[in-house]
Queue: 2 jobs
Job 1
Amino acid sequence: MSGFSEEVHLRNKVSRAFGSARNASPEKRREVSGELLKCLQSNYQSVRTAASRQLALLFKHMGEMQEQAIDTILDLCEDPETSVRMIGYKLLMDTARREPAWAPRNTDVLVQLLQNEDPLELQTIQNSLFEIIKDLPAKSLPILVEYLVGDGAEHTTELRDHVITFLTGRSSHEIIPILLQDGAGAQLIEGLVKVLSGASATNAQLIVDKLLHPFFRERPHPKLAHNAVRSILHNVESPRRNSDGEVQQLDGDQLVASCFPRTFPYLEIEYQ
């Protein structure tokens, strides 16, 4: 069967099974859902694309097959072909938006995928993650908080840096309104304050400039701002190592010179 014929066949079967919610047979829906998942791995790009669109639209009607659908999507995200992986990244977003119960799991997967080093793929992953956060902050932001204040294991620390890069990479006018509208946003801000003490100088400055400062400007929170100051002072006072791993000792003047530019924005937050 050609790609075009396979695509037409798929659309006809889907239309018959899901076209009428009142008359559709559950057994027929399960059958077509299974075929739809198989088509996601078709040799034809046009069929894969058509199947992904149908899956996004019909996911909430798939019942107990939703778990199988998610497993198939995860397989797509690990496919050797870039075009197939891109379909998987977008489906993680689409299925979460169609069925919010899957938002936490899909968010978790997308956070892990932030380690992708291909610029085009990473952009797609970041956009999919942002769309879930924008539409479902209460279900997705707690996952980011878990990565921010994780157990300190090496893989968790690396993912924490990726989460910080993702959050600070969005413009403030995109991310701050989301954090302001939901209680989970305040939890994320608390998590960011906690990681300041161990963040790199670059990440600490980005967190303040792109997230804390704009957030506190719209919603003052003296206690959290005070904690931010304490965290960055702890960061500054922590031992610094050179490229050989040796601890660098700073005298008083060096400490002040290092400390002031990195703490001034925090003091501005607290006392503005």
Job 2
Amino acid sequence: MRTALVDYAVSSGSSVAARRAAPPLEPRPGPEPSPDADRGGAPEPKRNPDPRVRERIARDTRAADALAEAAELSGERRHALKQRVIVEYLGLADAIARRFQGSGVEQNELRQVAYLGLTKAIQRFDADSGSGIAAFAVPTVSGEIKRYLRDATWAVRPPRALQELSLELRARVPALTQRLGREPTVDELAAEVRRTPARVAEALRCMGGRQALSLDAPVGSVDGDDDPSGVSLGDALPAYADDMEERVDLSVTLRSALRAIPLNERRAVHLRYFGDMTQVEIAAEIGVSQMQVSRLLRRGLASLRRELSACGVQE
């Protein structure tokens, strides 16, 4: 887990404590109103009646002013101002982290990643972009969490497209289940995400590769007992054969020797001895005559013997 959030980021996971530790941002003083303001001139803009919206706008303004001031400073003062801005938006990071509660990752871990994304957003924010800090931070924080879920939480990593589809399915399944009143079928999920049923089924299988099962996990009972704690996954695995180590070593050597022989010979040998195909089937597969397949196999086996002999393997 990436817990180093940058030296001024919040690393404790307690946004409440962090807010108490940092003083609130103060608005920068604006220009004095013109004495002619009451006598005509441009009308005042309409204020949004929702107090929550007004508070968000005011917070964005205070934070943008603080970042503009920090850009003109250096050392501890700049550090302190940026830290105060980060603390102002910890609640936003917490809210985004809660959206990913069903991802199979602990909430505290998600919050730490969200704080890292928030720190990056504050560092990259440009006041001239025309958007507020909150609008800029939301996609940055969400993207940081998604990258973390994609890159750091899989025991066995499938292709990226399947990872992203499995995450999308995980997010869609609860809402679709509630709408249908039952678990959705593969076809219904495929229609929901606009993918083929085969692709959706593959992504659903991928979800099992996210977290590895412990060898101590109970998987059965002893002598038909009702207590499932008697047999662990490690106990259920078959014992290694006496020559397992030698067979593994030979398999690695054989793979290396196959890579060293010409491609057409390698393909013929692979189809014959690993694909269990006849010479007639191989001829149809690669588009040559059966006699040519026979010659390819003969040359391929001779090349393979030479390579294995060079590696010290005896017949």
